[in-house]
Write a structure and sequence with these properties.
Layout lengths: L2 H20 L7 E9 L5 E9 L2 H25 L7 E6 L2 H30 L1
Helix pairs in contact: 1-2
């Protein structure tokens, strides 16, 4: 694993720990840090997160994270020894919701298609 990948993983782990263990904001819902994309010079990182819940939960969590971003950045800088504190940008990751929706559609197609297969089999007999 390269240094770049190790720093990305360390940032992901630390941000996750900070959000779950140290932020006491009730607006933060069930959140998962999905991945981190770090620039080559390690100066800035996009931290992707997903939130479980309805749109209102997403908005509340976004507001809470935006207000705590400076605090999160300072703790990450203290815990990860880099010459320059990495600038963090939080972005919501919708890939989990997208994959759940795809699975729902596939299940609906399967439910519609199964009775048709049963009819075809009966005709062959």
């Amino acid at each position: 694993m390269s240094r770049h990948q190790r720093v990305e993983e360390a940032i992901r782990k630390e941000v996750s720990l900070i959000i779950h263990d140290e932020l006491k904001d009730p607006r933060i819902g069930f959140i998962t840090i999905t991945r981190v994309e770090l620039t080559g010079d390690l100066r800035s990182a996009k931290v992707f997160y997903s939130v479980l819940g309805k749109e209102e939960e997403h908005k509340k969590t976004r507001l809470a994270l935006d207000s705590a971003l400076g605090y999160i950045r300072s703790l990450v800088a203290q815990r990860i020894n880099l010459r320059i504190a990495t600038e963090l940008m939080l972005k919501e990751d919708h890939s989990t919701e997208y994959s759940v929706r795809i699975e729902e559609v596939l299940n609906q197609i399967k439910e519609i298609d199964e009775p048709k297969k049963g009819l075809r089999k009966r005709k062959k007999i």
